[in-house]
């Protein structure tokens, strides 16, 4: 039995993926095992002061603080279907750094269920739990 896909589009996608992986390894052997879903691990958590300065009220004193902006970002990422896994984990980490509690993170994701559905909420909650507990799967 062959492992070759019967669907021409699937075969093309598999071939493209294999070629991209080979090119990436040739370009930089250390990138051979790179997984874009783990991208958040490469990005450090920005200190709360910097988050507030660049993402908070620094340039708009009457506007939203960094914590609120990050929670709104989390809401939007969840409503979209929680498909941006690394971005959700990274946003949760930064929201907590900006002062959000685990309860606020959970409530934000729960509200998103009204717009994005329960499956998106469940996926986002799992990702948030990974980020909060440091139990992200490899």
Task: List key phrases describing it.
138 residues, mainly alpha
Into which percentage range does the β-strand content fall?
A: under 5%
**Mean pLDDT across all residues, rounded?**
85
Q: Give the biggest sheet.
A: none
Q: How many DSSP helices?
A: 6
Instruction: Tell me how many strands there are.
Output: 0
Terminal CA distance reads 31 Å
Low-confidence stretches: none
Helical percentage = 55-70%
Summary of the model, kept short:
62% of the residues lie in helices and 0% in strands.
Notes on the structure:
- The structure is a single chain.
- This protein has 138 residues and is mainly alpha-helical.
- It contains 6 helices and no strands.
- The protein has helices spanning 8-27, 48-55, 66-79, 85-97, 102-116, 118-133.
- α3 (66-79) packs parallel to α5.
- The radius of gyration is 19 Å and the shape is globular.
- It starts with 7 loop residues before the first helix and ends in a 5-residue tail after the last helix.
- The mean pLDDT is 85.
Q: How do the strands and helices of this protein lay out in sequence?
A:
Elements: H1 8-27, H2 48-55, H3 66-79, H4 85-97, H5 102-116, H6 118-133
